[in-house]
Amino acid sequence: xxxxxxxxxxxxxxxxxxxxxxxxxxxxxxxxxxxxxxxxxxxxxxxxxxxxxxxxxxxxxxxxxxxxxxxxxxxxxxxxxxxxxxxxxxxxxxxxxxxxxxxxxxxxxxxxxxxxxxxxxxxxxxxxxxxxxxxxxxxxxxxxxxxxxxxxxxxxxxxxxxxxxxxxxxxxxxxxxxxxxxxxxxxxxxxxxxxxxxxxxxxxxxxxxxxxxxxxxxxxxxxxxxxxxxxxxxxxxxxxxxxxxxxxxxxxxxxxxxxxxxxxxxxxxxxxxxxxxxxxxxxxxxxxxxxxxxxxxxxxxxxxxxxxxxxxxxxxxxxxxxxxxxxxxxxxxxxxxxxxxxxxxxx
Amino acid sequence: xxxxxxxxxxxxxxxxxxxxxxxxxxxxxxxxxxxxxxxxxxxxxxxxxxxxxxxxxxxxxxxxxxxxxxxxxxxxxxxxxxxxxxxxxxxxxxxxxxxxxxxxxxxxxxxxxxxxxxxxxxxxxxxxxxxxxxxxxxxxxxxxxxxxxxxxxxxxxxxxxxxxxxxxxxxxxxxxxxxxxxxxxxxxxxxxxxxxxxxxxxxxxxxxxxxxxxxxxxxxxxxxxxxxxxxxxxxxxxxxxxxxxxxxxxxxxxxxxxxxxxxxxxxxxxxxxxxxxxxxxxxxxxxxxxxxxxxxxxxxxxxxxxxxxxxxxxxxxxxxxxxxxxxxxxxxxxxxxxxxxxxxxxx
Amino acid sequence: xxxxxxxxxxxxxxxxxxxxxxxxxxxxxxxxxxxxxxxxxxxxxxxxxxxxxxxxxxxxxxxxxxxxxxxxxxxxxxxxxxxxxxxxxxxxxxxxxxxxxxxxxxxxxxxxxxxxxxxxxxxxxxxxxxxxxxxxxxxxxxxxxxxxxxxxxxxxxxxxxxxxxxxxxxxxxxxxxxxxxxxxxxxxxxxxxxxxxxxxxxxxxxxxxxxxxxxxxxxxxxxxxxxxxxxxxxxxxxxxxxxxxxxxxxxxxxxxxxxxxxxxxxxxxxxxxxxxxxxxxxxxxxxxxxxxxxxxxxxxxxxxxxxxxxxxxxxxxxxxxxxxxxxxxxxxxxxxxxxxxxxxxxx
Amino acid sequence: xxxxxxxxxxxxxxxxxxxxxxxxxxxxxxxxxxxxxxxxxxxxxxxxxxxxxxxxxxxxxxxxxxxxxxxxxxxxxxxxxxxxxxxxxxxxxxxxxxxxxxxxxxxxxxxxxxxxxxxxxxxxxxxxxxxxxxxxxxxxxxxxxxxxxxxxxxxxxxxxxxxxxxxxxxxxxxxxxxxxxxxxxxxxxxxxxxxxxxxxxxxxxxxxxxxxxxxxxxxxxxxxxxxxxxxxxxxxxxxxxxxxxxxxxxxxxxxxxxxxxxxxxxxxxxxxxxxxxxxxxxxxxxxxxxxxxxxxxxxxxxxxxxxxxxxxxxxxxxxxxxxxxxxxxxxxxxxxxxxxxxxxxxx
Lengths: 347, 347, 347, 347
What we know:
Four copies of one chain form a homotetramer.
Chain A: H1 13-22, H2 34-46, E1 53-57, H3 60-71, E2 76-80, H4 85-88, H5 93-97, E3 101-104, H6 113-126, E4 132-139, H7 150-162, E5 167-171, H8 174-181, E6 196-200, E7 210-214, H9 223-229, H10 238-248, H11 252-272, E8 287-288, E9 291-293, H12 294-302, E10 308-309, E11 320-326, H13 333-346
Parallel strand pairs in A: 2-3, 2-4, 4-5, 5-6
Antiparallel strand pairs in A: 1-7, 6-7, 8-11, 9-11, 10-11
Helix pairs in contact in A: 1-10, 2-10, 6-7, 8-11, 11-13
């Protein structure tokens, strides 16, 4: 019962096949190979963006940090929420890559466009005393498993662009969000005002690859140099590219997003039957954040359920703890059913 | 006839098999998986260093830069030669990762230990006006295809340690060097006074993996945090580790180094027959740097030979240009023979 | 009526005299002069800390940033409150100097030691995914004009040291705090558990000088090199040092702190008479943060009162705005009386 | 006999007077004061550049590093000679401030424009593997006391601009160079193709101030933010500005440059009489680099002469050592005459 993360599972066979296909003969290194050119074209197709600048990197953290540092001057900040992965879980990567600071807009996973506008105005008034805004970043699926609707993204983009800032979308779970919103990749990105996407492959069935997609080529200036000096330009780039190629082929990316979501919703239905469960965050894709009594979480974990929770589970108290269950595309429904048995046994 | 680099070829089947084996079931992410533990043990075995701290990264540039920045305080410099890959070919990665500066010791590929000592003394005398030495870095096989002998490494290590500095070895072609010197990995590293090795897998048959090996665990303090904030901690770490595991198993690493060297020497013998060839750098492993007349280089390239050279080949002049031929482990001898035909036809 | 800041006023005559005295003959540059040695001794005397490492810098921002980056490894964070000057008003200087991130403990000017401990534990549990704590920083007088008592500082130091972290005190208004608490410099620093102080001269009558004082010399390792590579080592260091010497001589620093506080309290008494004034932050030293109706603030500013406030003063609304009045040591009481007249006329 | 540096002497009375004049009443902080506005106008007058963007900083190192990092993207390098102060004596400040790397053009103090062009072409060909050129920096008076003529500067500027790079002039001794070349500030800067000057006050009679002058305002974008986050924006900016104001008033800057040069040439004439002196670098301004026998240097130093030399003076050997004598504007001719006595006594 592996609900700890969507990065604990295997690689999808179609991605492995693409790797095997690419493992053939001599190709130019450093991205000057045909596989990379075809993979870039495939990503442009997914996003209906023939002019987009596309770069492959092996991790989401590097993709986000490279994208954001490319959008900002070194004395500028990125505005995000206090729950943003770039703030909470990347060990300061954006700052390391050259963003001056992260300026936090509220402590929800969903950014409030009015609060965003107030902070931009406030920072602008601070003049040189504040790190000036350089870009805005949001995440979809959010860090609490919820979704920005297309309208919500559009509203944030309007504020962002009104102040001449670019909007970045951390799409570690882009596939899940797109599938859940039943929209196209273009609709959830440039059509809604997003300027740059980190399009995640790793959590959705790849070995380790993300595509950074700049819809405005001017925004990409310097990305290639930054990627190289970070040691992220692969000499055998074809093997990064091949993963993305396999992932994009025949809409696999979207299908895997949908499959993970279906498992997530199946699990949510089971959890809903628990009498004491609460939902501080609505379960909308493949990642669920219910609150459960401390004692129940302990029992689940003792029964071998792999999951996360916040707060120590020692002590007698039985307060409600926030927990996290994630389903990846490969998770057997039998495992979820087995979990249901355990949960019922506990009720 | 692919002599442009040893990163243009395919992945060795044993490495691909290790990847396939690892692609099975649910494992903890971020290096907390069994495959990673086994791969670390395998690297320790290769180096006969059971206490070594071992970290996997996907590229040589990131391995070097992380290793060197971990060895230095941010205001300290790394001493290397002017031909060092970390100086010439990594787009400033060591400085980006936190090394204050590279201080250059001569313009050969081989560092002179006396010149090293003079520079250390000079920089120390500079006090705060100079970036103070923090570490020394050498490369074996060198950037001109030559070898440091074990004695030469030992002499550099003596100078380095006399000034309380650690010695780093850029081992992008560690396997080739070890095979050419007919020594063990331990002999070419900690037994000769090397403190940290970037042990390269990528150029020797892997997809993209290097092991950074710290023989003194104290030197590794902070490496894990630095790797994460650079976005280089793979969530699905098992697939980095599996490559290294396949590479180390049954001495494959050494065998592939030897095979590449054999092809290099076979090619050198052919080149030696050319009446006008000169050898500014003795060909000692799998990478050759002969000088050839400009016209011959042009004819070779026109014949479809993939190689590198320095200096434009336009114009009528027929001066000698430095060129580079690299053989990887997989290169068919038939290709080298075909090259011999072309070369003879030109003579 | 200059209440905008305590950095708008002149230099105290005793400081100017020290500069004139120092302007004599030839002295070694870069701090190897006698004036600097005497000034360091004077600061050690002020703090009763004969072993302290003392460094002079021209601004508070540089003093704080150099101190904090010296305390941290580049992948570690500094914990401070969301109102900290280092977070709000230094344009990202700590991060620029090498602190990975600022981790915010609450949004008050006063840090809660329990919240501090919870955050340290939380970040430690985050492992490499979070920037690990490297140091804690508080400010006295706080950014809202209040004081930490010696007991409060001690409690924060206890938490800090329990987790093996050093405690930094931003003492831009150290003199005011010491005078207001009626304690010695030692009592407000190392005796209460503070490890490093930025001891401010600029706001208290100097031209531009702060002393960074490390009570544990081990903590100061690398400070000199960092100061130089930031371009903050003055060639004619004697003129930084002379200011600090004049400032420390005969307890001038403390006297000027007390004089500024006396003016602050005199002004506070006048403000208290205003029928609609509110005090979200008790006025305890030379910097006052009353809330006043928007209309009154507008009238004060229209009458030539120099001050700060938060929030736009346009519109008809008459909500209460937070304002800031600061008195420096030199401010004529007549100006405060003149302000009282205006305020009364408005009432 | 203080020939060690031109930063060991006192402040010129006219500069002290300007400081005293500025020490009067309440002025806005952070450069929003009248003194700063007047000082900026004075620098623009000196350079006949009414549109220039002018910023004051306290040290040459900070001025150079801020100027160069403002001209470059973080992944770009600055091209300078191996003797450049920014390379040899600033502890890595340019890199700390955000320049990716320094790329060295020869090991003379005078940059060869042809070598410059070759290196630019070479780096451009390196693509992402090399840090790409972002700016070029030269120094006048050079680090070996020589002068670039206006023609030589123009030739370097032509190469620089042909490759769309800006040219920076480290003018720590701008006044001496201008006086020695008998040209105007404009002629030695923008009229010769220089885009940015660090105009030095500190070595020529100020306490500690340099003006960074951007002739193209577009080049200055971000400088103010960078200065602040480096902690180099003085709250009491008027005291930086006042120094520069006193320095520029009535051509004092030029007069002090000429006076220092006159002393330098007076000293050179004396040194020329020494039978064994050699001049690897022609003495052209106020800084002399003769080679003298080791024994003579030792005797001079034992006689109390303050100077610098390269190489240890222990041992019996009597090889020629490079030495440095610097005269500042204030040096009494009697001291030089006294030195002449010692030198003659030694002959």
